[in-house]
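Lecture 7 notes: from sequence to structure.
We start with the chain below.
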Amino acid sequence: MKNYRKTAAIVGSAFLFSNFTFILGTIMMVESILGSPDYLSLISASRAQIALGVLLSFANGLAYVGIAVLMFPILRPRFESLALAYAGFRIIEFITQILADVSPLALLTLAGDPGQISAVQGLGALLLAERFWAFQMLNLVFSLSALLLYAMLFRSRLIPRFISTWGLFAAALVLLNTVLGWFNPDLSQSLGMVTGLPMLLNEVFLGIWLIFRGFSPSASAIEPARQFALES
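Predicted structure tokens for the same chain:
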């Protein structure tokens, strides 16, 4: 486990970085504008903010891919199929995030001419709808990847089981709210903070834990063992 002490610190830092960039870039810089009724006018006056917010969102996706890459050699000896599936989900998540970020970038072009704002309202609404469904797919893949990760962490005891249990519960809440959004978007949006907060707090706590405590020295995940029950 000493060989993975630095890896644990990097993974923990990546969790903290991803949540920081998500909150600052996606929520505070982009969604604060796109959620406004006069978003096209606001975009025209906030081009730098939108561009920086999308850039931070892109960095968030890279952090998640980095976590999967770093965790793969640690989890693979015991959970080869699940570890590969987890890495695949993270890559798909990054792709769906790029699709979601196409909308605000396209809106920057549409809102470039203030005199044409009224003419592009319909196309703007279409782009926002595309972003909504891209985020629905992103949240679906994110919750499934989180369930895989915490199932492997729970089984391997790489971290204390209360953190893994917390993560499984939080990921299930995100998945539930995502599915709810397909049928009742308004209710899903109103519950978004309630269902997403446990996941946010869990990842922040996990990040801090990995930085200062690392992986559990008694963990056996890096040693070849029986395949996880889900693989049998």
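Points to note: Confidence is low (pLDDT under 50) at residues 224-232. The radius of gyration is 19 Å.
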